[in-house]
């Protein structure tokens, strides 16, 4: 039976003391949010496009130095879900251009560089997209080494508790600004809800904590969406931390 984790349990999970549970975090950032339309918290901007079915994907780098013997990123790991929402991790060797990913996936939860040359980081934007230069599903921005997206899908057989949300504006100009951010839940059937909405200003980061946390069931998409900003070209972060535990 699924049980609620307490504060002491959360710390133990981080050290691997509690079995069948692990720490999960998604570090969402959107560097350019404009007024007038909602945008999801990921580095590409706009609304995130969820896959409707298992899809063939490819990896593209905007810089030729991201290659097997280059000075940039040499390989990446893609953490994804298959057609049955089971976790799959694939290591892809880069070639400075486009590389096909062997297996189809239904969701991409994160990606990060696994090795690099003398530059120690990816030189270009590494784009994970549908095969044939299709829809972008994730990006490792140049110089960051990891995807910066709040979107995450709970694998089959697991339940997620989101216990902390961090919101802030970055690189604030002279004029003050504020914005509203919402939690986004989408079922495997494709309908979604946004139950919690929080408005913050640029005075300081805002952290929303709670134990027990926000429960996200298996096969559910979760993320953060910006529903309003007071100023164009707003740069914001919406990150969350959770504990994921097996259902049995």
Averaged pLDDT, please? Answer: 93
What is the 3D form?
globular
- H/E element sequence: HEEEEEEEEEEEEEEEEE
Q: What's the alpha carbon Rg, rounded to whole Å?
A: 18 Å
Number of strands: 17
Which stretches are poorly predicted, pLDDT < 50 over at least 5 residues? none
Kindly estimate the percentage of residues that lie in beta strands according to DSSP. over 45%
Name of the CATH architecture of the largest domain = Sandwich
> What is the class of the largest domain in the CATH system?
Mainly Beta
CATH fold-type name of the largest domain: Jelly Rolls
Description:
The protein is mainly β. It folds into two domains: 7-48 and 151-246, Sandwich (Jelly Rolls), CATH 2.60.120; 57-140, no CATH class. Helices cover 3% and strands 49% of the residues. The chain is built from one helix and 17 strands. Strands 2, 10, 12, 13, 14 and 16 form a six-stranded antiparallel β-sheet that branches. Strands 1-17-11-15 form a four-stranded antiparallel β-sheet, with helices on one face. Strands 6-3-8-9 form a four-stranded antiparallel β-sheet, with no helix packed on it. The chain is globular.
Features:
single chain; 248 residues; mainly beta; Jelly Rolls; 2 domains; six-stranded antiparallel sheet; four-stranded antiparallel sheet; 1 helix
SSE diagram, text form:
Blueprint: H1 7-14, E1 21-33, E2 39-40, E3 57-61, E4 73-81, E5 87-93, E6 98-100, E7 107-116, E8 126-130, E9 136-140, E10 152-153, E11 158-169, E12 178-186, E13 192-193, E14 197-201, E15 206-216, E16 221-229, E17 234-246
Antiparallel strand pairs: 1-17, 2-16, 3-6, 3-8, 4-5, 4-7, 8-9, 10-16, 11-15, 11-17, 12-13, 12-14, 12-16
């Amino acid at each position: 039976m699924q049980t609620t984790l307490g504060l002491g349990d959360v710390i133990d999970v981080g050290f691997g003391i509690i079995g069948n549970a692990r720490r999960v975090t998604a570090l969402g950032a959107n560097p350019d949010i404009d007024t007038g339309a909602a945008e999801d918290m990921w580095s590409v901007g706009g609304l995130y496009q969820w896959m409707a079915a298992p899809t063939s994907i490819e990896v593209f780098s905007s810089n030729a130095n991201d290659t097997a013997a280059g000075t940039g990123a040499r390989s990446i790991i893609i953490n994804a879900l298959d057609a049955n929402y089971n976790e799959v991790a694939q290591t892809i060797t880069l070639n400075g251009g486009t590389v096909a990913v062997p297996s189809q996936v239904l969701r991409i939860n994160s990606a990060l560089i696994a090795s690099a040359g003398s530059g120690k980081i990816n030189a270009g934007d590494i784009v994970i997209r549908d095969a044939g230069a299709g829809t972008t599903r994730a990006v490792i921005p140049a110089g960051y080494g990891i995807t910066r997206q709040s979107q995450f899908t709970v694998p089959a057989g697991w339940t997620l508790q989101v216990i902390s949300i961090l919101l802030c504006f970055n690189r604030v100009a002279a004029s003050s600004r504020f914005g509203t951010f919402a939690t986004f839940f989408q079922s495997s059937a494709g309908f979604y809800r946004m139950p919690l909405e929080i408005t913050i200003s640029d005075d300081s980061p805002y952290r929303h904590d709670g134990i027990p946390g926000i429960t996200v069931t298996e096969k559910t998409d979760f993320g953060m969406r910006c529903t309003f900003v007071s100023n164009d070209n707003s740069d914001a972060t919406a990150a969350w931390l959770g504990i994921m535990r097996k259902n049995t």
